[in-house]
């Protein structure tokens, strides 16, 4: 009986030692996920107007979508941008993959550069948009520019048109324009009868016979009012 117990004790000890050795020699390696490859773009915006500050520039990358289509109704986000210069709704959309924004309005003759970094490997388009703040609902920019195949060092220049969001009547009256020419309200209730994005025909101003207009000849504009240069730098 004593010999049998001794043999069992020795066998148990050997099993424990083997198990311990097995744990000590565990060569398994925890895989560290690779960091995603990034693409970095610089977006330079120039205000070419005489007296039309541009609301804080919105640079938005999305999964191939467009922020507006001419002839179609503006989204709520575009309405907020075009009437009040508020780009937060557009930036916060579900389709947004990445974004950046200017911190303040861009004055006439001024320029700024914004940087946007995105993960590589997915279909990506970029939109740049801003309101002409001395108007009722004019905006300018580009939308749906495909960045997927851009190589490092590639640069393109855009001279976008000025659009009418079609969400507010172009009365130019006091209280309806958010820019320094008036300091009026931003987004107004309701939409004008057209309710579609179109090319903007320009402002009339009091100097050209619209007596209730708070604008003068310095606020007139012709296409383009904005120059955009996009470069892939990484």
TrEMBL record:
Tree of life domain: Bacteria
Organism: Alteromonas confluentis
Signal peptide bounds: 1-22
Record-linked NCBIfam families: NF038123_dom (NF038123)
Keywords: Signal
Protein's name according to its UniProt entry: Spondin domain-containing protein
């Amino acid at each position: 009986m004593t010999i049998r117990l001794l043999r069992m004790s020795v066998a148990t000890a050997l099993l424990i030692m083997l198990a311990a050795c097995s744990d000590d020699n565990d060569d398994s390696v925890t895989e560290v996920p690779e960091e995603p490859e990034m693409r970095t773009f610089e977006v330079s915006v120039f205000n070419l107007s005489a007296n039309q500050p541009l609301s804080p520039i919105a640079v938005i990358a999305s999964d191939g979508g467009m922020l507006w289509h001419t002839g179609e109704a503006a989204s709520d986000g575009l309405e907020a941008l075009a009437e009040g210069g508020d780009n937060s709704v557009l930036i916060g959309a579900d389709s947004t993959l990445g974004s950046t924004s200017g911190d303040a309005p861009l004055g006439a003759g001024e320029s700024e550069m914004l940087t946007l970094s995105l993960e590589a490997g997915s279909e990506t388009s970029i939109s740049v948009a801003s309101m002409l703040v001395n108007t009722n609902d004019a905006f300018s920019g580009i939308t749906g520019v495909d960045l997927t195949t851009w190589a490092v060092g590639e640069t393109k220049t855009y001279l976008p048109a000025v659009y009418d969001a079609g969400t507010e009547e172009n009365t130019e009256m006091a209280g309806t324009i958010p820019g320094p020419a008036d300091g009026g309200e931003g987004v107004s209730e309701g939409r004008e009868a057209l309710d579609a994005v179109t090319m903007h025909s320009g402002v009339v101003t009091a100097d050209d016979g619209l007596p209730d207009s708070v604008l003068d000849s310095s606020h007139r504009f012709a296409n383009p009012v904005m120059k955009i240069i996009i470069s892939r730098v990484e």
